[in-house]
Design brief:
Blueprint lengths: L6 E5 L4 H12 L4 E3 L11 H11 L3 E4 L7 H6 L1 H22 L3 E5 L28 H21 L3 E6 L1 E3 L12 H15 L3 E5 L5 E2 L1 E3 H14 L6 E3 L5 E2 H12 L4 E5 L14 H7 L7 H19 L2
Parallel strand pairs: 1-2, 1-3, 3-4, 4-5, 5-10, 6-9, 7-12
Antiparallel strand pairs: 8-11
Helix pairs in contact: 1-7, 2-4, 4-5, 6-8, 6-10, 8-10
């Protein structure tokens, strides 16, 4: 299903990932894109969801809206992270079903995988255990999108697909320490240290956990490619195909940013999931997606954007 000439609703389209997806849609020729704002359509409210679909009459819906955060935010708000994400997805898919929307793309999370998943994560491992405890409510709420999508496909013949992106990073990420993920949190922490002349920075955990990171523009390209070329029931990983220890990540960011001070690890804080790295062969086989941005290039672009934004805001 080409995106050209289609009316497309992108929930979360003004956010970090969503804004890049909108740009990718435009690059591919889409011109009729609806980006609902929370003040007009609160997706946790079922009547607002129904009104959105009635008002916009979409042919494609990309559901990217989510309530997200890092380990700290997940620990502090497990109930609202579960409820808000579950209700947004369940109600949106039901409204799309009732309206007969031809294509729906739901974007899940790597947090849906079991805590101890063999590396690299393959899609068939998704149901082999319980997610890592600090982000399980969020991960399970998003995982229900897959259950609902498959159930609706089976009963109603609904064309809905489910994608599982790994940890994202890039320009326009959320650098608020109360809600940011690991890369923006580290970038802000190190920039603060550089600005104040601090001799050290403190980092949560032991540094022994690993993560995989996907540059946001690559993720947007993968999501739009799947929208156009994939119609299957099975979930599909979107990743970059590499794994890095958090300790090495901190070293790399410090080097790129020019910070030569001490890194102090607070082992009393959680590491989160022990390892994260995806098998990305299904995405390449089904819709030709492969990440192309090198990790260090992506980091430099992210840091440059953050420094420019910080300067613009006078902070």
């Amino acid at each position: 299903m080409s995106v050209v000439g289609r009316r497309i609703v992108v929930t979360g389209g003004s956010g970090f990932l969503g804004s890049h997806v909108v740009e990718e849609l435009e690059r591919r020729g889409a011109s009729d894109i609806v980006v609902p704002r929370k003040r007009d359509y609160d997706l946790v409210d079922g009547t607002a969801v129904q009104r959105l679909i009635e008002d916009s009459r979409p042919q494609i819906v990309l559901h990217l809206a989510a309530r997200v955060g890092g380990i700290g935010a997940n620990r502090e708000h497990p109930g609202s992270f579960f409820y808000d994400n579950l209700m947004m997805g369940v109600q949106l898919l039901e409204a799309c079903r009732k309206a007969g929307v031809p294509k729906i793309v739901t974007v899940g999370t790597i947090c849906s995988y079991p805590k101890f998943t063999p590396v690299p994560f393959r899609e068939e491992y998704l149901w082999d255990g319980y997610p890592e405890e600090t982000n399980a409510p969020y991960g399970l709420a998003k995982k229900m999108l897959l259950v609902q999508s498959q159930a609706y496909r089976q009963q109603y013949g609904m064309n809905t697909i489910h994608l599982l992106p790994v940890n994202l990073y890039g320009p326009r990420d959320n650098f608020d320490p109360a809600f940011s993920h690991v890369i923006p949190a580290l970038v802000k922490k190190i920039q603060d240290a550089l600005d104040t002349g601090a001799a050290e920075v403190e980092v949560w955990g032991t540094g022994k956990a690993s993560r995989e990171f996907l540059y946001v523009e690559d993720a947007a390209r993968g999501i739009v490619a799947a929208t156009e070329a994939y119609d299957g029931a099975e979930p599909v990983n979107l990743g970059a195909g590499f794994e890095i220890l958090i300790r090495d990540l901190v070293t790399t960011i410090a080097r790129v940013m020019g910070f030569a001070g001490l890194v102090r690890w607070d082992a009393s804080k959680p590491d989160g999931q022990p390892r994260r790295s995806l098998d990305t062969s299904r995405a390449e086989r089904l819709f030709g997606f492969r990440a192309t941005t090198s990790f260090e290039d992506g980091l430099r672009r992210t840091i440059e954007w953050y420094r420019a934004e910080r300067s613009r805001q006078g902070t």
